Request: fold
Amino acid sequence: MPLKGLRGKRALITGATSGIGAAICSRLRAEAVQVVATDIHPGPDVVVADLTNADDVERLSAKAGTPDFLVNVAGGPVAPTRSDTQPALPRRSLALEDVDEQQWSRVLAANLTTAFLMCREFAPRMKAKKSGRIVNFTSIAARRGSDRVGVHYAAAKGGIIGLTKTLALELGPFGITVNAIAPGFIKTPRLAAADWVSQQFIDALPLRRAGKPDDIAGVVAMLCSDAGAYVSGATIDVNGGWYFGP
Reply:
């Protein structure tokens, strides 16, 4: 049964070319939502933009119009560039001393600045019509820490939680909900190729399986639908029971 409140609405999805972003695009399109997809990595029906750049975000806004739903998926433990839009994931854990200032700045920009610039650009349009849904993406790395992906990624995703809570307070009076999703291990093609996680780890999860991008897409659809109308300021853990702390 289709979710109520989605048909005919307009969504802007970042990080949309592959993995979780692509799954969200597919799910919302299946719910008769008009989707504007953007990514630094080219793909079919994707508006290419570097969302760490305010000028690119402004140019994107001219093409995207006023979305009902803004879903900020873009990010990752390594920062893409226009010349390397899908950089290889690290094959070993990153210790504090392994992270230099350039890595720190680029990963914070790819994960936190992108969401800030997108919210700053599109929230005023939602405020003008007194409605909207914003879904940001944090990570289990921000919820419980991580000795795998590095302090820069965990810190950036922790910033997403603070951004989400503050915007929920600020934008709530305008009828706009703002929430964050914190995925655990979601087996996208890119992560599967990196071979980060052992079968022993997956078997130890309460649900005994790795997550799928569609598992995340369903939660996004719910938050954008009428069913999610009274949820705001929340960070929703989607990790198969791996972590459910405060």
Observations:
- The mean pLDDT is 94.
